TrEMBL record:
InterPro entries: Dim1 (IPR004123), Thioredoxin-like_sf (IPR036249)
Zinc among keywords: no
BP GO annotations: mRNA splicing, via spliceosome
Nucleus recorded as keyword: yes
Keywords: mRNA processing, mRNA splicing, Nucleus
GO cellular component: spliceosomal complex; U4/U6 x U5 tri-snRNP complex; U5 snRNP
Similarity-based family: Belongs to the DIM1 family.
Pfam family, one: DIM1
Localization per Swiss-Prot or TrEMBL: Nucleus
Record-given protein name: Thioredoxin-like protein YLS8
Highest taxon of the lineage: Eukaryota
Length: 153
């Protein structure tokens, strides 16, 4: 399902939804029955988003059997900014069978990842954990790593 023309790796990552009403994003979440839907909300020009997009592009081939990635520019698609409190430069959220899957990262914010992960394997581990939990019907999963001390070291 191609929604736009920009993507880090065209064949693996589904590019940014550019619908002014956000219906394309909703349809992407609704249409996927078996795989986890990963949405990166942010700006394509933002440095934090670019770092996260590099990781997303690098892992897309590895996770394509159980997850699909969408990039959504929050200026082009502002519909979700208030609903999901998208105030950070980069926000990654997970959905499974039209349900938002929360993840306890130890940060106090279980709704989203709001920083750029730099380690590809770390992100793959998070995606696998979210997918396994979502398949079991869990709406909240515990991250494989505690990020409460991510700025201390």
């Amino acid at each position: 399902m191609a929604l736009s023309t920009r993507s880090p790796r065209e064949e693996d990552v589904v590019p940014a939804a550019s619908s002014p009403l956000g219906w394309a994003v909703d349809q992407a979440i609704l249409a996927e029955e078996e795989r986890l839907v990963i949405i990166r909300f942010g700006h394509d020009w933002d440095e934090t988003c670019m770092q996260m997009d590099e990781v997303l592009a690098a892992v897309a081939e590895t996770i394509k059997n159980f997850a699909v990635i969408y990039l959504v520019d929050i200026t082009e698609v502002p519909d979700f900014n208030t609903m999901y409190e998208l105030y950070d430069p980069s926000t990654v959220m997970f959905f499974f069978r039209n349900k938002h899957i929360m993840i306890d990262l130890g940060t106090g914010n279980n709704n989203k990842i709001n920083w750029a992960l730099k380690d590809k394997q770390e992100f793959i581990d998070i995606v696998e954990t979210v997918y396994r939990g979502a398949r079991k019907g869990r709406g909240l999963v515990i991250a494989p790593k505690d990020y409460s001390t991510k700025y201390r070291y």
